[in-house]
Amino acid sequence: MELLSDCPVHASVPDKYVLPPEKRPSLLNDEPSSDVAIPVIDLHSADDCRRQLVAAEIIKASKGFGIFQVVNHGVAEDVVQGFREAAAGFFAMPAEDKLPYRSDDLSKHFRVSSSTPYDRNGDRYWLDYLKINCHPVTDEHVREWPDKPGSFRSSLAEYSTAVHELAQTLLRLIAEGLSLDGGFFAGDLSGGSTQMNVNYYPPCPDPSLTLGLLPHCDRHLLTVLSQGDVAGLQARHGGRWLLVRPVPGAFVVNLGHQMEIITNGLLASVEHRAVTNTDAVRLSVVTLIMPKMECRIGPAPEMVNEATGPAKFKEFEFSEFIKAYSAAAASREDVLHYFRIHR
Ligand SMILES: O=C(O)CCC(=O)C(=O)O
Ligand SMILES: [Fe+2]
């Protein structure tokens, strides 16, 4: 299939991208109410004696929203911009330069594709994407990465290393905020090969007809996302879609299914989606921190307590979860259902 980025301007939304009316984003209803906003947390003070307060803020945001933004996170601006520019440059290349990287085989760790029919009924979404194994930065992984534009590999290595460090800091703060050992999530729970989605959403002539990405929850432990300054990400909260407002230099952090299971439902994974816009290309760089495939997952004994009640999920191997996720529609309940203990 042709990539959307192969044709820079689209005069109308081709029929195959027009979603059935019940799946369209109903943009008119999506304005967030002024009293509810996704928290923005300043990590600067996590270095000093306010650490406990920052950890508590993170837990509050995680319980209330399952998603938050962080600023003063320690990832240098030029590292973020350097990779964002290389990624934008990748999609701006002529079709023949992207062709060697193209694949629609969903099982491939590295691929460039367009508009996956995520829910397998043929609906098309308004995006191209690049999926990459981005961490650890090993020769084997780097050899898979695009070598064009020229700065792609070096800027990805820098970005991936820095974001990985940030993710470990966040996981440590989450653990501390839950009164777990600070290293609780280090090791196998977050030590799987890290995947990155680089999502490219071209301007869309009619955003009311289609979506950039359908509503879904991330299957991993934690997602660290750079959305730049173009809005489009929305998170479900209290039965409505809240816009994740772009904050200069911020990373968006959202919790995945594994965090919900490990914390016995105390911290919930959040459903989110991407809407399109008429004016600007939107690029999101999404780093997905995940357990090792063979890692056993289940509610942590420390998290099965008065606050959370009896264990809500069975224990499983992470690879089983990934299999179930791929087989089910990516909707929240469909996937969690397999692993929930039904009383
Ligand atoms: O583009 C976005 O902001 C959302 C991307 C996303 O949810 C994903 O890649 O899983
Ligand atoms: Fe996502």
From TrEMBL:
Keyword Cell membrane: no
MF annotations from Gene Ontology: metal ion binding; oxidoreductase activity
One family name in Pfam for this protein: DIOX_N
Superkingdom of origin organism: Eukaryota
Domain Fe2OG dioxygenase: 192-291
Keywords of the record: Iron, Metal-binding, Oxidoreductase
InterPro entries found in the cross-reference section: DIOX_N, IPNS-like_FE2OG_OXY, IPNS-like_sf, Oxoglu/Fe-dep_dioxygenase_dom, Plant_2OG-oxidoreductases
The keyword Iron is assigned to this record: yes
Cofactor(s), by name: Fe cation
Entry similarity comment: Belongs to the iron/ascorbate-dependent oxidoreductase family.
Annotated protein name in UniProt: Fe2OG dioxygenase domain-containing protein
Organism of origin: Triticum turgidum subsp. durum
